[in-house]
Design a protein that fits this description.
MetI-like; cell membrane; MetI-like fold; 9 helices; ArtM/GltK/GlnP/TcyL/YhdX-like; about 0% strand; about 220 residues; transport
């Protein structure tokens, strides 16, 4: 079998533009996922507040128990039935962010629970409120412990972003499909797309490793 990458080289600017869209939508989804994950993770620790704990637990169970693709389709195709028509980009960010938030929340909860209980008790004994102790004592230590599993979640989200092409978002996968439709060189194009995702995930891994090293060097974890 002969390989012909000429359609890939000819369409390389479109693939790069698609990669930029992939980075943008993934970055926005990561930000939303981290904010949601932090709030829900903290909510899952407040068993003394049954309503908060119940809502957070239901959110995690629902989102983790259904496919991301179905969630994206509900936002893009389902919401218009209720008179709410959102741009495809917004649906992609919301879908991936909400999906990621459920997994990030478990990472946050696990990291916080791994910190010795005595530290919270000691902080409360010197007059700190629960919120103050969490913000100044517990979270700074838990953050470093979150980095490795968060790295896995971020990488998974980058790869899952390929699904947003089904919402007509012009990401790298969508641009690749356009090249295939006129060149019929699917293998070569998919290899190029795989290379783009490999670079994106590799850069993410290096960035997170650098952040973890900086945090550890700063003495934020024992």
């Amino acid at each position: 079998m002969d390989f012909d990458f000429s359609p890939v080289w000819a369409g390389w600017p479109d693939l790069l533009n698609g990669a930029l869209v992939t980075v943008q939508i993934t970055a926005c989804a990561l930000l939303l996922g981290c904010v949601l994950g932090l709030l829900v993770g903290l909510g899952r620790l407040r068993r003394s507040h049954p309503l908060v704990y119940g809502l957070c637990t239901a959110y995690v169970a629902l989102i983790r128990g259904t496919p991301l693709l179905v969630q994206l389709f509900i936002l893009f195709f389902g919401l218009p039935h209720f008179g709410l028509l959102l741009p495809a980009f917004v649906c992609g960010v919301l879908g991936m962010g909400i999906y990621s938030g459920a997994y990030v929340s478990e990472i946050v909860r696990g990291a916080i629970e791994s910190i010795e209980r005595g530290q919270m008790e000691a902080a409360r004994s010197i007059g700190m409120s629960y919120a103050q102790a969490m913000r100044t004592v517990i979270l700074p230590q838990a953050v470093v412990r979150m980095i490795p599993p968060l790295g896995n979640e971020f990488i998974a989200l980058i790869k899952n972003s390929a699904l947003v092409s089904l919402l007509t978002i012009h990401d790298v996968m969508h641009e690749g499909q356009k090249i295939i439709s006129v060149s019929y060189r699917s293998l070569e194009v998919y290899l190029a797309i795989a290379a783009v995702y490999f670079v994106l995930t590799g850069l993410t891994t290096l960035a997170l490793r650098h952040i973890e090293q900086r945090l550890r060097a700063g003495g934020m974890v024992q």
